[in-house]
């Protein structure tokens, strides 16, 4: 197993934890010096806050840990790599750039919110006057990442504004090939 | 009874920002109301917008001057009229219900990109459809749609049936199939012997103009809604006054952060909605990047978090009630229970006021929170996500739109770009262009 798949499997474990907690199943791990320094999952429902995505949860953990962040620098994540099961959304992609993330690997793309190319290329396409761009590469454990989302979405997301009954929806197992690659 | 808390208290003790608060000569403060006060009404004390606290090192001289002034330290606050500059809500008088002409409003509505009048501008979404060979089955299927709960708001902008005039073929729209919604098609009733359903591309919203209608209906028959509700919304003096007060609070919050804590002069404020129920709580937060050593503690993120924590604490109150066996009314009342759904989409129907156009992260946080309107004072030309660098609610694919208004009336808020005679409370709040607000 290559190293990216290894770390992505760790991120998948966090996504499984999210699913068990009734959250949109997205998980992530942050790697520095070949070690996991933080892992997190979506907590939007638990915290009643649609912005508490896995990546932001983990960043808070890293910054509040004096051993991981002994002193504040302009780009505290410039030697840290992120593995996340779903392409970071536009919000998280911007947060990661503001934090100077080194690199991002993700599982499946996100056509509705994706900030690493699917909807907007916040990681490198979009210019920023100060923050350096970062590379984001998708496709690691992509099918697993899609299947766990499907397992969540065939149940009703009762926290959505207008929950749709999915009683008559069936779990689809066929996965379309990737048409677009990284952003 | 009024308690001298907050500004009332701090004016008394810390307005002069001295390590040794000046001792006042009386033991009581008398507040006189300008009208009758109803039982239960909240009292607010207004010291004039000119009241501001300066950092202690700059204040020592004034402390000396004002200790024994007999006004509890308020005498150095000059009435705004004396300085010849109006600093009061320009919409506070007159009839609250009078409609304010668009050009007299203190803000400009952000012009969304041109309506979808060329094929490449049309926002589309995939949907599941099925051909219905036998037209007699249409009525049965329409009833079935209702039973299967497929009559959802996300298809309300589309007609349900497409009839091909050349082939006579009838096609029924079942439901949308957004690309990242991985559920398959709905299971059709077996008895009708329908062919398999398939995906087709349909417009993502109704048509606002006739050229747009023609293009959209070529994809799928689309509703024509020439007057969108939010486009013709008239603003009354009362609502304009509400917005002005909200923006004024936002500016004060930013100045507080920068003067007292040396933070970036950025703030966000979610006022109680103008038409909302009374006693709705409002929230304000300034940027805290500096004091928290956290580059992502932006004002908008901070204020959303305050709101979320407030809701979460109310939720825990409710679960305690559940544990003790007395079910709260919201669980018994289906309408209230419905309101609970989507309660983590915190800003549904709400307006946020910001000193600066929010960065990409904050703009998307607002979109995730389903904000209704965003007002800001200063555009962020190279970092802003609400009209400058990009405009998130207009991007193809995003599942929520909000409207954007840029504040234009700077003079009534006394946002001078240079400190006025060293007057710390009238300075502007401009930021370096590289900063994400």
UniProtKB/TrEMBL annotation, chain A:
EC number of the protein: 3.5.4.33
Record field: catalytic activity: adenosine(34) in tRNA + H2O + H(+) = inosine(34) in tRNA + NH4(+)
Keyword match Hydrolase: yes
Keywords for this protein: Hydrolase, Metal-binding, tRNA processing, Zinc
A GO cellular-component term linked to this record: cytoplasm
A Gene Ontology biological process term: tRNA wobble adenosine to inosine editing
Family designation: Belongs to the cytidine and deoxycytidylate deaminase family. ADAT2 subfamily.
PANTHER family (UniProt xref): CYTOSINE DEAMINASE FAMILY MEMBER (PTHR11079), TRNA-SPECIFIC ADENOSINE DEAMINASE 2 (PTHR11079:SF149)
UniProt name for this protein: tRNA(adenine(34)) deaminase
Species: Coprinopsis marcescibilis (Agaric fungus)
Upper lineage: Eukaryota, Fungi, Dikarya, Basidiomycota, Agaricomycotina
From TrEMBL, chain B:
Chain segments carrying region Disordered: 1-23, 74-102
Biased composition (Polar residues): 10-23
CMP/dCMP-type deaminase domain segment(s): 254-389
One Pfam assignment: dCMP_cyt_deam_1
Alphabetical UniProt keywords: tRNA processing
GO cellular component: cytoplasm; nucleus
InterPro entries per the UniProt record, alphabetical: CMP_dCMP_dom, Cytidine_deaminase-like, SET_dom_sf
Top-level taxon of origin: Eukaryota
Any Gene Ontology biological process: tRNA processing
GO MF, any single term: tRNA-specific adenosine-34 deaminase activity
Alphabetical list of PANTHER family matching this protein: CYTOSINE DEAMINASE FAMILY MEMBER, INACTIVE TRNA-SPECIFIC ADENOSINE DEAMINASE-LIKE PROTEIN 3-RELATED
Assigned protein family: Belongs to the cytidine and deoxycytidylate deaminase family. ADAT3 subfamily.
Name of the protein this chain belongs to: Cytidine deaminase-like protein
Top-level taxonomy: Eukaryota, Fungi, Dikarya, Basidiomycota, Agaricomycotina
